[in-house]
Recover the amino acids of this structure.
């Protein structure tokens, strides 16, 4: 379980966010490597889902994964979250090996899957209180944190209804709330905008950027290119299990040899359509 620690909240641009742990991050510096993926390979039988992938995400940085269906995005995120064991390579969170030092690593991270699973016979509020206790928060702290997050995601009106009656978007809000309960230093998010209406999607994007401003490291996958353009500091493009390229949008434009005003869709299509055979030379990193 996560160790308990004092928790405080502030208001930034109309949004409320957790700030505990910020002083530690400030002391360590925003340049701290919160996530290190080192030569990660994941096989399922003869199929290679992820091949020799290396990537870093630092505190105060949001990195977005883009790629066609089956590119290896979700498999990579599940390896980072400790749900899949790598066939080769390793994943470090805050310097802790996710598989060899699982408890220490998982104290620092939260994972939001592409499908928001809840206990159907619990209400959203009950689910959040349950998760908060699993993370080791004290009872009074649990209630305060849950109320803050329900207000943040505008979920208070239906938080006492059973989850079996929730829409996909309502489930997504509760799962995102649960991921923030223990103030993670690394947030791993798979397709966070799926099922959200435009107003909710805008709110989630604001929350993610606010977490980054507070020193959180975020690794996010998305099929929505405009979301990556809007919120990501760096973007990685996966194709056939390999990381073709990663860097800022300016880096990607140079790699794709597109015009300076070329949008991310043009860059993405050019890089994936012209991608070398997966057995050819390893992909470059900018």
């Amino acid at each position: 379980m996560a160790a308990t620690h004092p928790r405080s909240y502030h208001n930034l641009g109309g949004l409320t966010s957790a700030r505990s742990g910020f002083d530690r991050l400030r002391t360590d510096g925003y340049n701290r490597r919160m996530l290190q993926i080192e030569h990660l390979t994941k096989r399922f039988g003869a199929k290679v889902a992820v091949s020799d992938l290396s990537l870093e995400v630092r505190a105060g940085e949001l990195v977005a994964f883009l790629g066609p269906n089956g590119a290896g995005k979700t498999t990579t995120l599940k390896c980072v979250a400790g749900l899949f064991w790598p066939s080769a390579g390793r994943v470090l969170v805050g310097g802790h090996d996710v598989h060899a030092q699982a408890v220490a690593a998982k104290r620092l991270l939260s994972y939001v899957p592409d499908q928001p699973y809840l206990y159907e016979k619990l209400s959203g509020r009950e689910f959040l209180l349950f998760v908060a206790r699993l993370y080791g928060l004290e009872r009074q702290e649990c209630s305060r944190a849950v109320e803050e997050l329900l207000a943040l995601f505008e979920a208070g009106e239906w938080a006492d209804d059973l989850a079996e009656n929730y829409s996909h978007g309502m489930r997504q809000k509760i799962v995102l709330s649960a991921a923030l309960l223990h103030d993670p230093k690394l947030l791993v998010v798979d397709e966070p905008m799926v099922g959200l209406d435009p107003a909710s999607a805008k709110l989630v994007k604001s929350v993610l950027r606010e977490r980054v401003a507070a020193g959180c490291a975020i690794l996010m996958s998305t099929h929505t290119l405009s979301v990556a353009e809007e919120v990501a500091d760096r973007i990685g493009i996966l194709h056939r299990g390999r990381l073709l390229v990663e860097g800022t949008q300016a880096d990607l434009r140079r790699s794709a040899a597109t015009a300076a005003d070329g949008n991310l869709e043009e860059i993405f299509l050019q890089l994936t359509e012209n991608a070398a055979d997966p057995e050819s030379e390893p992909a470059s990193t900018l």
